[in-house]
Design brief:
By secondary structure, the chain is of the alpha/beta class. The chain has two domains: 214 residues, Rossmann fold (3-Layer(aba) Sandwich); 83 residues, 2-Layer Sandwich (Alpha-Beta Plaits), CATH 3.30.70. A six-stranded mixed sheet has the order 5-6-7-3-8-9, with helices on both faces. The chain is globular.
Length: 307
């Protein structure tokens, strides 16, 4: 990929190792102004490591990372950057408004706490100590703080962790409003619904590599799978119904991940293959990626500590 001088952040041939483990494997990508980018993949795919490289929190083992054209480890390069980590840590004795004011004073430009609080539904909490907030309220505050310095680029790592459905949707609305004001946003998630709600461009990460980088519709078509579970005495015959389907065995249950579950089930019935306890549902994103990459759940679990 050719380097674009207008890109806000770039990774070129970047690899990050932890001992013998490769968390990010020869990744090249660019974040362009004005985008909402969804970075999608199962737990342990390398999403958090990529964000930490852009933020200058980690150094690449090889390759080049640039933020606003400079070294992300240089504080001057990060002045136009906002971010929210997966874990929320706030000073419990400070009030919400005080935390917003404190963080904002680290930036040349800042959004006033009252304005930001209104956008993220925190107005009634401005005088409350952060230690008295619920987990979901703390998460909303943590995401709001990513925007307090009027940044040009914001990196949100699993921003809706711990929120209920209504809380997630409210936060999505606030993020979209910030984007409408000109902020470029990168969101990591393993929730397909979240990426669908927010992203225009999707970068699919698996085993530390970029598996896809395209517009939302193209990527959704690529990862769309259904999970068909059943008990059968002839799993081989079932597998022949769709040679492209990924097949796993979970105890006495056979799992098939297929792009067309309707056709799969019709073929199952028409073929007279014995089965019982049939269930069909949409595959979770992690299941879809396990199917696409050929990983096992145990392998993904081993990598999850690296995010």
């Amino acid at each position: 990929m050719n380097t674009n001088a207008s890109a806000l952040a770039t990774l070129h041939g970047v690899t990050r190792r932890y001992g013998d483990t490769i968390a990010v494997d020869d990744v090249t990508l660019e974040i362009e102004p004005g985008e909402i980018v969804g970075m999608l993949g199962p737990n342990g795919a390398g999403k958090t490591t990529i964000l930490s490289l852009i933020q200058g929190l980690r150094r690449p083992s090889s390759g080049t990372v640039r933020l606003f054209g400079g070294d992300p480890r240089d504080a001057r390069s990060r002045m136009r950057l906002g971010g929210t980590p997966q874990e929320t840590a706030l000073p419990e004795t400070l009030r919400v408004g005080e935390v917003m004011d404190f963080v904002g004073r680290h930036f040349d430009r800042r959004t006033e706490p009252a304005e930001l609080a209104e956008q993220f539904g925190l107005t009634e909490m401005l005088r409350r100590q952060t230690g008295s907030l619920s987990g979901g309220q703390k998460r909303r505050l943590s995401v709001a703080l990513a925007f307090v310095g009027s940044p040009e680029l914001v990196l949100l790592d699993e921003p809706t962790t711990g929120l209920d459905v209504d809380g997630r949707r409210a936060l999505w609305e606030a993020i979209r409003a910030q984007h409408d004001r000109g902020v470029t946003v990168v969101v990591t998630s393993h929730y397909l619904e979240e990426i669908e709600a927010l992203a225009e461009r999707v970068i699919v990460i698996g085993e530390g590599r970029v598996l896809a980088d395209d517009r939302l519709g193209a990527v959704l078509a690529h990862v769309g799978r259904s999970r068909v579970a059943m008990k059968t005495t002839d799993a081989a015959a079932v597998a022949r119904l769709d040679p492209a389907a990924h097949h796993e065995t979970d105890g006495d249950t056979e799992l098939f991940f297929t792009a067309d579950s309707d056709r799969f089930v019709r073929g199952l019935v028409a073929g007279g293959i014995p089965f019982h306890d049939l269930t069909v549902r949409g595959a979770s994103l992690e299941e879809a990626f396990l199917a696409l990459t050929g990983e096992t759940a145990d392998t993904a679990s081993e990598r999850s500590v690296l995010a």
